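[job 0412] stage=complex_fold ligand=zinc ion status=START
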Amino acid sequence: MPVLIPIDESGRSLVIKMSSEGSKDQASGSDGSGGGGASKGKVGGSSSDGEQQHSGFNPMETLEQLMRLLRPWQQADEDEEAAAKPEQLLEDVTLEGVVKYMQSNKCKNIIVMTGAGISTSAGIPDFRSPGTGLYDNLEKYNLPEPMAIFDIHYFMERPEPFFYLAKELYPGKFRPTPSHYFIRLLADKKILLRNYTQNIDTLERIAGVPGDLMVEAHGTFHTGHCIGKCGKEYTQQWMKDEIFADRLPKCTECEGLVKPDIVFFGESLPMRFSKLVMEDFPKCDLLIVMGTSLVVHPFASLIERVPVTTPRLLINKEKAGEGIPRLRQLGMDAGGFDFESKDKYRDVAYLGTCDDGCYKLAEMLGWKDDLDKLIKSGHEQIDGQSAASQPSKKPSEGETDQAEPSTKAESPSKAEAASK
Ligand SMILES: [Zn+2]
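[job 0412] stage=complex_fold status=DONE, emitting structure tokens
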């Protein structure tokens, strides 16, 4: 491989790397017709191009220029690259192909990566949708900026807004979605290696996904800790009682503030995350990514951590995680998913809601009855509990014996329609 693009790096470091490669090539290939000194690392065919690179910073243009220079070299390596092409494990690079693969004995360690999209049908707002997203609806808290509500430094000074919001959004007021129960089903079938979630709503646990199969990359409300002197651990129930009594949760030992174990801006990800990423991803047989636009790092870059042969399925309303597709058009390693190119061999996208996608998969796998049963019994249990603890709520109203999922939009027929 002549050209390696470090896609996790910023555009700036990309340009620096590429320009040193380019000047080398130019020096040896004597292709520079513009008379610019190779020592200056001039890459383009005219002096204005060269200047553009130095003054700063049009990475795409620079790369395209470079690619033109590197093309002969690349073509010479083509045979070698074809020989080095990773083994294709999917019979077809389609949802059907993924299903067949899941039914084979090659697929025993599935990693599921999830984001806010699997919880929106439970009524939990996502963060960034304009208008309805959380960040657009925080005026009443009088914040310097919306994201301050999750900023650890702001929280230390003024914790009240966070706890008001926590009360409003408290886990336990929502029911897991069919997507959550699908993950549970993978666990029951003993093929879930781990679920890495960006969500803090604990709906996976509520759906019965075992805690040891979960990595809550951005933390969880499941536990909390004193951030004062003593660091004592508190349960979700204890924090909930305090928050719902409109008290700031204060440590019973040292009076310090008790913070749910979610990761605020300015805090590092849990140790468990980095530890298990190293262990899990190299042995992943199938990666399923659901309900995330893959923009928040380091979570987003995890899709690159599986072996090059491992099939990857995205279930999302729109395509995501495609790296830099323009690079792929130029015949380069663009990073990310490749759903489109003629060289695709392992990446499949199902475009639709996560719930539709999970229903579709369950149906194709012959698991639809299993999934329906899980949803029905799970929701009955939750509704029973919340009816006992919150008599004002009427959760069972409208419940049918058909185990209606949490929204009306999840019927399999709709899923079918969405798959084409
Ligand atoms: Zn304490």
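The chain has two domains: 11-83, 92-122+174-216+274-420.
[job 0412] exit 0
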